[in-house]
């Protein structure tokens, strides 16, 4: 998969297989519902579907490996039987990534950037699959308590560069790495805005494709009079538009249909030449 060939960001649809999903209100705990939801997102034009069995929203607690596997494996198996769409597995556990890839997943999306387990780097190298390395300050349970930076852009850039170096050193291929600033992962509204205004710089300075996950996140509520998670579509689309104009490689979203439609329209306007004078 070439993460930069497209003239618009690839759209990665979010499929939560967790009881406490912030924005799906527990609708997809049932693997059958998660499978149906994934197939709906594929029908809506998702380029990739991202399957997650452990919530990493602020304040959430970890789940054990066996529980996470029992949530995600049936969903991956069923999607793979019915579609060839690339599947990404959203997990910090190398054992979960390994089994997910073995049964047909294609991409490892790791919000810990291969720091969660001592074996993560070696497993990533062995798997030989595309990887997302994301920035997070702290851990999901406590990361929003008091996020602090001297210079958020520089610190995120330095962190990603050091994780890229660690991955390359361990044997992960250069072509398999994507990076993500980790919107909402140990960041204030101001931190998130600074990162969102400089996604293009992050992509240029790392020289790796950038993935952005901002869909329905708290910062949108903060900018819109505490709008609840089920009322953040406009803000989510605005952030995808920002990613589009900064030529970002991939966006991770809940609302695939609306995102794909917006990108088609933005692209059509962009492709239309300007009239002289
Ligand atoms: C991400 O950004 N995020 S899971 C809280 C929300 C809304 C959404 C309160 N996995 C990312 O989606 N992987 C997650 O509102 C991710 N980048 C990558 N690569 C958290 C999430 C969310 C949390």
User: How many strands, which pairing sense, and closed or not: the largest β-sheet?
Assistant: 8 strands, parallel
Instruction: Using the coordinates shown, work out and report the CATH topology.
Output: TIM Barrel
CATH class: Alpha Beta
State Rg: 18 Å
Amino-to-carboxy terminus distance: 41 Å
Element pattern in H and E: EHEHEHEHEHEHHEHHEH
**Any ligands, ions or cofactors bound here, and which?**
ligand YH5
- What's the number of structural domains? 1
Proportion of residues in extended strands: 5-15%
How many helical stretches?
10
- Which architecture per CATH? Alpha-Beta Barrel
List segments where confidence is low: pLDDT < 50 over at least 5 consecutive residues: none
CATH superfamily: Dihydropteroate synthase-like
Shape: globular
Strand order of the largest sheet: 6-5-4-3-2-1-8-7
Count the beta strands.
Answer: 8
What is the structural class? alpha/beta
| Helix content range | 40-55%
TL;DR of this structure?
With 277 residues, this protein is α/β, with parallel strands linked by helices. The chain is 43% helix and 12% strand.
Structure description:
The protein is α/β, with parallel strands linked by helices and 277 residues long. The protein has helices at residues 31-43, 65-82, 94-102, 120-127, 152-170, 189-196, 199-206, 218-223, 233-245, 256-271, and strands at 10-16, 48-52, 87-90, 107-110, 131-134, 177-180, 211-212, 250-253. The chain has one domain: TIM Barrel (Alpha-Beta Barrel). It has 10 helices and 8 strands. Strands 6-5-4-3-2-1-8-7 form an 8-stranded parallel β-sheet. Helix 5 (152-170) links the parallel strand 5 (131-134) and strand 6. The protein is globular. The model has no long low-confidence stretch (mean pLDDT 95).
């Amino acid at each position: 998969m070439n993460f930069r060939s497209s003239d618009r960001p690839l759209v990665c649809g979010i499929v939560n297989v967790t009881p406490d999903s912030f924005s799906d209100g527990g609708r997809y705990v049932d693997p059958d519902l998660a499978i149906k939801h994934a197939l709906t997102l594929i029908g809506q034009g998702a380029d990739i579907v991202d399957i997650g069995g452990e919530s990493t929203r602020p304040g959430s607690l970890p789940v054990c490996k066996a529980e996470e596997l029992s949530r995600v494996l049936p969903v991956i198996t069923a999607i793979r039987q019915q579609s060839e769409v690339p599947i990404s597995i959203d997990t910090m556990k190398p054992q979960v990534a390994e089994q997910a890839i073995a049964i047909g997943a294609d991409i490892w999306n790791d919000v810990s950037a291969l720091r969660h387990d001592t074996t993560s780097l070696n497993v990533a190298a062995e798997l030989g699959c595309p990887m997302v390395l994301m920035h997070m300050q702290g851990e999901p349970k406590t990361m929003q308590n008091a996020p602090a930076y001297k210079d958020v852009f520089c610190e995120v850039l330095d962190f990603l560069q050091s994780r890229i170096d660690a991955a390359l050193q361990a044997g992960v291929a250069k072509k398999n790495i994507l990076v993500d600033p980790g919107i909402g992962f140990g960041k204030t509204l101001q931190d998130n805005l600074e990162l969102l205004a400089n996604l293009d710089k992050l992509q240029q300075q790392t020289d790796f494709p950038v993935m952005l996950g901002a869909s329905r996140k708290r910062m949108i509520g903060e900018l819109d009079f505490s709008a609840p998670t089920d009322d953040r579509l406009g803000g989510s689309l605005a952030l995808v538009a920002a990613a589009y104009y900064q030529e970002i490689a991939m966006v991770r979203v809940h609302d695939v249909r609306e995102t794909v439609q917006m990108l088609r329209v933005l692209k059509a306007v962009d492709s239309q030449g300007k009239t002289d004078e």
